[in-house]
From TrEMBL:
Domain of life: Bacteria
Alphabetized PANTHER family for the sequence: KETIMINE REDUCTASE MU-CRYSTALLIN
The protein's name in its UniProt record: Ornithine cyclodeaminase family protein
Database matches in Pfam families: OCD_Mu_crystall (PF02423)
Organism listed in the record: Anaerotignum lactatifermentans
Length: 358
C-alpha cells in the first residue's frame, strides 16, 4: 500500500514536527513501560485510538497481514504483528508473547511481555523502541469495550470477568468507561489469591461493587456482559456449559474459544471477530477444532456501522477479539508523540551507520 499525494503532504508535515525533537534516521527513543505510563494517556484516549485502529482495519485502508507466530513452550505464543495505517501516519511492529508456563516455571517474570518498534513510514527508520506491555494491558480491554459499546445494552447492571490476571485487572478497571450503570462486577479465577488481588487493586478505582463469584456458573448466569481472558490453549476443555448462557447477554472473548462450549458460539444471534483473516489463520494453527460459527462481521465494521448491530434486548451476542497490530500502532503513535514532546525516554543512536553504507 503506497501513500496518496495528499497523505504524503499531510504526513510529511507531521514528520517535520517530529524532527524538531528527534533526528529521524540517526537516532531513536527507547521508552520503558513507566515512560509509556508517564505520558498520561487516558483510558478514553486508548479506547478511541483502538476503535480507530479497528475501523481502519475493517475498511481495509491499511496494510496489516495476519499475525504469524512461534510457540517455543507448550500452550505459549510469540506473535509478530506489523501494521501501517497511512491515514494515521502510524506504522510499526509489535512482538508480543504470552507464556502461562512462567507462572509455575519462572514466577519472577510476568506471563505476557511485548515490545513495539515504531517506524517512520516515509523513510522506514525506527523512531522508537518501546515496551508494549502497558499498551497491551490497556488496548486489549479497549478492544473488548469497543465491542461492548456497539453490541451490549449500555444500561447493563452486571459485568463478569473470567480470569483475574493482568487482563482481568485492567478489564475491570476500565469497564466503567463504557458501562456506566454497573452495580455489581463478578470475578472468577481458579486461584482465590488472583481474585483477592484484583479486588484489592481495582475496587478503589471502580464504583460498582466487585464480588468473588461463588462459581463460574454463578458468574455466567448472573451477568449481562462477560469478558474472558484465560490462557489460550490448543485443545481447550471449555468450562462454561451452554445451558448457563442466556439470551440478551453480550460475551466478549479475548482468549479465542477457550471458555465456552462450542454450542454457545453456534447459538449466538450475532458473532463478530476483529479480523476474519486472522481467525481463519488460527483455524490453520488448530485453535478452533470445531471451526467458527457464521460471522456477522468484523468488530471494526460493527463500530463503523457497516454491519448489523444488536437488534433486540433478547439477542445473544459474542465478540471474539484476538488483538490486532492496527490497535497497537494507534496507541503507540499517541505514546510516541507525547513522549517526544515531554522529553521522556532515552535517545539512542541508530546502529546503521550511514558512513558505512554511503
Ligand atoms: N485478545 C487480545 O488482544 C489479547 C491481548 C493480550 C492477552 N490476551 C490473552 O489474554 C489471556 C490472559 O492474559 P493475561 O496477561 O491476563 O494472563 P495472566 O496469566 O496474567 O492471567 C490469566 C489468569 O487466568 C487464570 N486461569 C488460568 N486457567 C484458568 C482456569 N482454567 N480457570 C480459571 N482461571 C484460570 C490464572 O490463574 C490467571 O489469573 C491470555 O490468553 C492472553 O493470550 C489476549
Amino acid at each position: 500500500m503506497v501513500y496518496t499525494k495528499e497523505q504524503m503532504e499531510k504526513n510529511d508535515a507531521i514528520r517535520n514536527e517530529y524532527k524538531k525533537y528527534l533526528n529521524i534516521g540517526h537516532e531513536f527513543i527507547y521508552l520503558s513501560e513507566q515512560d509509556c505510563i508517564d505520558t498520561g494517556t487516558t483510558d478514553m484516549e486508548i479506547i478511541e485510538a483502538t476503535e480507530q485502529g479497528m475501523i481502519d482495519y475493517s475498511k481495509k485502508i491499511l496494510e496489516m497481514p495476519a499475525k504469524i507466530g512461534i510457540h517455543p513452550m507448550p500452550d505459549c505464543l510469540m506473535h509478530a504483528m506489523p501494521a501501517n495505517l497511512p491515514d494515521q501516519y502510524a506504522c510499526g511492529i509489535k512482538w508480543g508473547s504470552n507464556f502461562p508456563t512462567n507462572k509455575t516455571m519462572y514466577p519472577d517474570v510476568i506471563p505476557t511481555n511485548c515490545q513495539i518498534i515504531y517506524n517512520d513510514a516515509l523513510t522506514g527508520h525506527m523512531m522508537a523502541l518501546m515496551d508494549a506491555s502497558w499498551i497491551t494491558k490497556v488496548r486489549t480491554p479497549a478492544t473488548a469495550l469497543v465491542g461492548i459499546k456497539h453490541a451490549a445494552n449500555l444500561k447493563a447492571k452486571t459485568f463478569g470477568m473470567i480470569g483475574c490476571g493482568i487482563q482481568g485487572k485492567s478489564n475491570v478497571r476500565m469497564v466503567e468507561n463504557i458501562l456506566k450503570e454497573l452495580e455489581t462486577i463478578y470475578v472468577y479465577d481458579m486461584y482465590e489469591s488472583a481474585m483477592d488481588a484484583l479486588i484489592a487493586e481495582d475496587q478503589p478505582q471502580v464504583k460498582a461493587r466487585i464480588v468473588k463469584a461463588e462459581s463460574l456458573e454463578q458468574l455466567v448466569r448472573s451477568c449481562d456482559v462477560i469478558v474472558s481472558a484465560l490462557p489460550i490453549v490448543h485443545s481447550p476443555n471449555p468450562p462454561v456449559k451452554a445451558e448457563w448462557v442466556h439470551k440478551g447477554q453480550t460475551i466478549v472473548c479475548l482468549d479465542c474459544h477457550t471458555v465456552y462450549e462450542d454450542a454457545v458460539y453456534k447459538s449466538a444471534d450475532k458473532y463478530y471477530v476483529d479480523s476474519i483473516e486472522q481467525h481463519e489463520l488460527l483455524i490453520g494453527y488448530g485453535y478452533y477444532p470445531h471451526g467458527l460459527p457464521k460471522i456477522t462481521g468484523e468488530t471494526g465494521e460493527l463500530a463503523a456501522g457497516t454491519v448489523p448491530k444488536r437488534e433486540s434486548d433478547d439477542e445473544l451476542i459474542v465478540v471474539n477479539n484476538v488483538g490486532m497490530a492496527s490497535e497497537d500502532m494507534m496507541c503507540a503513535k499517541i505514546i510516541f508523540e507525547r513522549a517526544l514532546k515531554m522529553g521522556l525516554g532515552v535517545k539512542l543512536p541508530l546502529w546503521t551507520s550511514t558512513k558505512g553504507l554511503l
